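Quick one:
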Amino acid sequence: MTEIVTAARTAQPIEASPTSHSFISQRLKLHYTDWGNPDAPPLLLIHGGRDHCRSWDWVAQQLRQDWHVMAPDLRGHGDSAWSPDGDYTMAAYVYDLAQLVHQARLAPVTLVAHSLGGNIALRYTGLYPDSVARLVAIEGLGPSPRMQAERDAIGSAQRFRNWIDAKRDAAGRQPRRYATLEDAFARMQSENAYLSADHARYLTIHGTSRNEDGTWSWKFDNYLHAWSPIDFTQAEIHALWGAITCPVLLCYGRKSWASDPVEDGRIGYFQNARSVTFENAGHWLHHDQFEQFMAELRGFL
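Output:
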């Protein structure tokens, strides 16, 4: 564990701060950060579920001299608005990304995305292959073939009933309140044993907001726990992957729950993709093995 923690702490401290901006998508005001250098090639950093755009700050810090780096908060996350109906579909997420690229005139853009963000970026790129120059997806292919088969075996009607139950459960839950920021920080650390204390504290500071009574809560919407029962079929998703024409880098952590696309065969759906597995890293491999990730990222870019 000492080796793992040491590796995570090699990331450089944040020496610059981005500016905050917003754009409108489906009547929602969505937030993004901009690290300047507008004359450089555009690069978007897209976070994962229940995360926020400031989790990319270490990556942005190292790329901002050569790229025009921007990082959005997905709807329901960070400093972006929550969906009024509490409904978060992949279609809405993809539309939001399309709106940001369109409104900021970023195409052709380079995308670096994690988990849910990777899933969104892959779908967008399959829909608009000419709008993306390069794509890095960190564990962004979604459930493994085994997990997907288990989900399909439930049947569409039961999935729909499960979604209704999950929505009702979310409706009855209040955002969790922590008496102190230190309590939220402890929760962050318990979620990822690979994070250094400095990383976890920074992510907690930017991932929480203070309530009127002085307690702290995470910024994300509780309705994010209720995944839509309606989506593209796996065949349709594979077709989107196959439509991607730009180079693709798929990144996976050896200690993660996610399935390796080389071992499970999903890399075969891509025209031009390479996969890298990071040892001693979990789902947040870009934090867990920062220096190795940045070396792979720079080489790919």
